[in-house]
UniProtKB/TrEMBL annotation:
RNA-binding as UniProt keyword: no
Regions annotated as coiled coil: none
Subcellular location, record wording: Membrane
Top-rank taxon, per record: Eukaryota
Signal peptide range: 1-21
GO cellular component terms attached to this protein's record: membrane
Swiss-Prot/TrEMBL GO biological process terms: immune response
Keywords of the record: Glycoprotein, Membrane, Signal, Transmembrane, Transmembrane helix
InterPro entries (UniProt xref): CD2/SLAM_rcpt, Ig-like_dom, Ig-like_dom_sf, Ig-like_fold
Source organism per UniProt: Gallus gallus
Name by which UniProt lists this protein: Signaling lymphocytic activation molecule family member 1
Residue stretches making up the Ig-like domain: 132-215
Regions that span the bilayer: 227-253
SUPFAM superfamilies: Immunoglobulin
């Protein structure tokens, strides 16, 4: 007996006994995407004959249900406009943007003369997985064999499962494994490992491949070169940074010291002093003026320096020599 015959036998028993028969279906929804909750063709035919149907879903209180949509002989009411759509062609319900709170038990009910027919759908919502990444946890090269531990992870996704397999171009069972961790040993002369990691959940699947051999000669050489450069360049960079720090500190310390005031500048202006020395031959005899044949007075020229100006006092721009006349009486020997 086929499945269709069993199904119709089940429906017939419900009709005969007049009881409400319920069938549960599981539908997988993707987070953030549209999800369609459909009903089988048998329920579509029953809806057209009876003319009355409703979409409901369960609530936190098991004794309560939330009405989403009602249909009555071509007329319908949408209780969640903007969130759900009802398709008259097949009486299906479409959730426009599936969210985690939409993970509920949904029920499509047909009201008949003496009984009710129900089609129940359990909606399960999953976040799709992102592209997996392969990380090298540990590797060791010894006795011409490379032993490596790989870990496959994803950043997003619900109920994620991992599996390892060989690439399509290789039939080697080297990478066959279930789980995120893979421990394998292989010949390091192989330039490429034929391993791929697949991350999947009930609504999505993503695969990534191992790009190169971990213990290859090229990778070992690049690793040693990188360590050598690190050992040489790092001390030089540290020395340059320290020298820069000391230089900045020295300059800052000098800038904080108060400026020493410069010593007062000496007045270098030269002044001419005319002095006359008179021999006392005749008391109270005036001195002959300069330029006579027999002068009785002697003129003395001397240079004198002016008094120093106070510090930071501006000097005159047109400072001229100053002449001083003085008379000196000398006794006659």
């Amino acid at each position: 007996m086929g499945y269709s015959a069993l199904f119709w036998l089940f429906i017939s028993s419900c009709w005969v006994w007049g009881i409400g028969c319920r069938t549960v279906e599981t539908v997988l929804g993707t987070l953030g995407k549209a999800t369609v909750l459909g009903v089988p063709s048998e329920f579509q035919n029953l809806t057209q004959r009876s003319g009355t149907a409703t979409w409901k879903r369960s609530m936190e209180n098991p004794l309560s249900k939330e009405y989403l949509f009602t249909y009555n002989n071509g007329n319908y009411t949408n209780y969640k406009p903007g969130e759900i759509l009802f398709h008259l062609s097949n009486f299906s319900l479409e959730i426009l943007s599936t969210q985690r709170q939409d993970q509920q038990l949904y029920e499509y009910s047909i009201t008949m003369e003496a009984h009710e027919r129900n089609w129940q759908i359990q909606l399960e919502v999953y976040e799709p997985v992102s592209d997996p990444s392969i990380h090298i946890l540990d590797w060791m090269l010894a006795n011409d064999s490379c032993t490596v531990t790989l870990n496959c992870t994803v950043a997003q996704g619900d109920n994620v499962s991992y599996s390892w397999a060989s690439s399509e171009a290789s039939t080697s069972p080297l990478c066959t494994h279930n789980g995120s961790l893979l421990l394998l040993s292989y010949d390091p002369t192989n330039s490429i490992l034929p391993c791929t990691c697949t991350a999947s959940n009930p609504v999505s699947s993503r695969t990534t491949a191992l790009r190169s051999s971990i213990c290859s000669t090229e990778q070992q050489g690049s690793w040693r070169t990188g360590m050598l450069l690190l050992g040489v360049v790092l001390p030089i960079v540290i020395l340059i940074v320290l020298a820069g720090v000391f230089t900045v500190a020295y300059v800052a310390a000098n800038m904080r010291q108060p400026r020493e005031q410069s010593p007062p500048t000496e007045d270098s202006t030269v002044h001419t002093i005319y002095s006359q020395v008179q021999r006392v031959e005749k008391p109270k005899s005036p001195c002959s003026p300069p330029g006579t044949d027999h002068p009785t007075c002697t003129t003395i020229y001397a240079a004198a320096t002016g008094a120093s100006l106070p510090p930071h006092s501006p000097q005159g721009a047109n400072m001229e020599p100053m002449t001083v006349y003085a008379s000196v009486m000398l006794p006659i020997s």
